[in-house]
Hints:
13% strand; alpha/beta; Aspartate Aminotransferase, domain 2; binds pyridoxal-5'-phosphate; 15 strands; 2 domains; seven-stranded mixed β-sheet; globular
Amino acid sequence: MAFDGEQWLSKDPEIARLINQETKRQRTTLQLIASENFTSPAVMAATGSTLTNKYSEGYPGRRYYGGNQIIDEVEDLARERLKALFGAEHANVQPHSGANANLAAYMALLDPGDTILAMRLDQGGHLTHGSPASLTSKIYHFVSYGLTPRSNDADILGEVIDLDQVRDLALAERPKLIVAGATAYARTIDARDYRSIADEVGAYFMFDAAHPAGLIAGGAHPSPVGIADVVTFTTHKTLRGPRGGAILCREALAKKVDSAVFPGLQGGPLEHAIAAKAVAFKEANTPAFESYAHQVVANAAALGHALTREGFRLISGGTDNHLVLLDLTTFDGELTGKEAQEAMDAAGITANRNTIPDDPRSPFITSGLRLGTAAETTAGMGCDEMATIASLITRALRARHDLSQLASIRDEVAALCGRFDPYPEFGA
Ligand SMILES: *Cc1c(COP(=O)(O)O)cnc(C)c1O
């Protein structure tokens, strides 16, 4: 199970062995973490290139170091490809991560102490949306909105973003910034709903597209670009690029955004990662990626449907995107998210536990599970495989106290993964 570039690590067999083990884990077990994907070998080649050696503080044409002529071309290509992919006026490709992109956007638009209206963490928001544990909550004043209550009426969709609450809070609190976007929310977030509220109260509007960026690029989720003042996202989730972040905005905010990223928040950019982002943006601007994005969504729907038949309840009543949030309590009242994650790990199925709305259990234990289809769709799986996965998950959770059954499910998982190898280029 060799990875590309193993020959260069012959003098460091410890790390070479660990990388090989991780490559093998990714190829022989099911990757259902909603924020993960398999990047192409081309993306990894750029990430592992000599560009990692170069210091290039500043922006193309305005660097603080010499020798950046070629780096300037790399970063310009990345910016132009990104603008073309999303139809944006301005792009910043330097944020080291999604969290940094969010911090930079806040810094560009706000002063310390300003009010931000964002989604509640325990209902799907992200740490950088004002968690007490995050620096964001120490610098800014956060007010949070959540989901509508669970509905028992088949005609009313429950557990969806409560836009009336967003508007009421916006009118009462007069935030300077309203943030849309979530880390565990299975429904489409329409930027236009937020735009009208932001306009009503004179707030900026930021759309954190960390999760759906690839679906937006592939036309499988409506685009917030041109509607939100600033769009931030990660490049490594559904967009299938290297680990990193990016920011899109109108030309009018370009200067503020750029100076917030550098020198406001970061030092030298990771030009090897920026080259890899450029590779991913090119890959994402193809008909093949468009079909990929739509297949990701179809697969999540198929997975959700099959799990519903097994007795699980889907938070928000279903899914429009790449992820499924499961309420485990309808399947087995004794089963916690933590136990489910551990049993699935033993069966070779990797996912993460998640709080559900009004979760009676602590965030460390939880009553929910978050599953995503972005990675295994890259590996070539379709709706038939999603039904198989639903049955493997169900069996693993029923057999969670039986180690030998979990081991035999793990063999079935490995056989399935063998038919859908994300890296056939690496050989057996
Ligand atoms: C993943 C995520 C981020 C942060 O991305 P990192 O690259 O992990 O810093 C920010 N916002 C949302 C909504 C996310 O889901």
